[in-house]
Amino acid sequence: MTSSAAVEVRGLRKAFDGKVAVDGVELTVPRGSFYGLVGPNGAGKTTSLSMITGLLRPDAGTVTVAGHDVWQNPYEAKERIGILPEGLRLFERLGGRELLAYTGRLRGLTGAETDERADQLLDVLGLTEAADKLVVDYSTGMRKKIGLAAALLHNPPVLFLDEPFESVDPVSAQTIREVLRSYTESGSTVVFSSHVMELVQALCSHVAIMADGRIVTAGTLDDVRGGRSLNDAFMELVGSPLTTGKTKGKGALQWLGSSSA
Ligand SMILES: Nc1ncnc2c1ncn2[C@@H]1O[C@H](COP(=O)(O)OP(=O)(O)OP(=O)(O)O)[C@@H](O)[C@H]1O
């Protein structure tokens, strides 16, 4: 792996019951980049991120994170990874602060270090008041935020986030953006998946567009956009079923609306 790459993915594949979900993904994520992974529903983003972070065993391919092979040397690799996965499972019967204390110890931090970092993260993410509330009683957005705090606690060099802004209120989203920006400016790397093109365009230095289990295009934001908005580039490369689907040109959905009832 080149020294400037935070993540190298080669020939990554996965099929479920014979149906290919990820079909030979190749990706190089430069160190210090803010890397967006976009693609339509079912494109294979979550499956790819799960394999890249060591949560799902690939059928084929290799992944290195910060120079460590995720599947050959999982401990070395996972020490360097922070992850906010899709459908995050949390210890529901712990309070937010307890969850961070537990995570800190799992990550090898001292109690004092964990407490200090946890206090700061709870404060910045607006969770101080809810710090002693059980996670089971958190809202969806609060769960995202406590999950993000847990992912950041050990200050990993590479952070993987699956839809980190989903269900998060605008004020918290702005805070998260600022936290992640300063995190990448200090040389750490963020890889995140999102459906919100404006957000990816505003935040990311690099983008990969994925469709049907493959990377359609990847590179710097400017290269991928090619002078257009990211949304236009996405639409051009991936297409909309209204213009490319089997009902195109046949007045798709003309029955919808103007109901007489
Ligand atoms: N555990 C599983 N068992 C069977 N099929 C699966 C499983 N996980 C994912 N798939 C299939 O793999 C394909 C890719 O799914 P994936 O969740 O990776 O897409 P995605 O790009 O993250 O989509 P979205 O944007 O909707 O979250 C889909 O066809 C999905 O049905």
Automatic annotation (TrEMBL):
Membrane topology annotation: Peripheral membrane protein
Matching Pfam families: ABC_tran
Keywords on record: Antibiotic resistance, ATP-binding, Nucleotide-binding, Transport
Domain ABC transporter residue range list: 7-237
Keyword RNA-binding among UniProt keywords: no
Gene3D superfamilies documented for this protein: P-loop containing nucleotide triphosphate hydrolases (3.40.50.300)
GO molecular function terms listed in the Swiss-Prot or TrEMBL record: ATP binding
Cross-referenced SMART domains: AAA (SM00382)
UniProt keyword Heme present: no
UniProt subcellular location: Cell membrane
Primary localisation category: membrane
Domain of life per record: Bacteria
Protein name: ABC transporter ATP-binding protein
Species of the source: Streptomyces fimbriatus
